[in-house]
Amino acid sequence: MSEALVNLTIGRMAAETGVGIEAIRYYQRRGLLPEPKRTDGRIRRYGSREIERLRFIKAAQKIGFSLDEIASLLQLDDGSGCGQARKLASRKLEEVRARLDSLNRLEGVLSELIGRCDSGRGRIQCPLIAALGSVDGPSAKRRDQ
What we know:
Number of helices: 7
Distance between the termini: 63 Å
Number of strands: 0
Oligomer: single chain
Order of helices and strands: HHHHHHH
């Protein structure tokens, strides 16, 4: 990390990391990011450790970790918690797979409804709108067929 990335104001750190000032303050209130003491000039100064922490938070968010999960991961950052970190990541992977399964089912239902639109030309009511407007939705019709 370059020498220029130490002793930064919150605005400069925000610009360096692409994280907004209010987000930085929020992370501080949540305990995810330490709040440096004020200098004699009453300005907080940030360094490479805070920049690394912010980058970690943003990277973890990008792969789907919530702020609570990120807080748990940060508590394990002393090198002894690799097993716990693995458990958290495994749970996250299970959640991602469940969402993928749900999205795949949704894709099938939407494909079927779009297909009905193509076959329903000349009818007064659109099959897609009719299926979505029914109480049980399109999946109930598929189970009965």
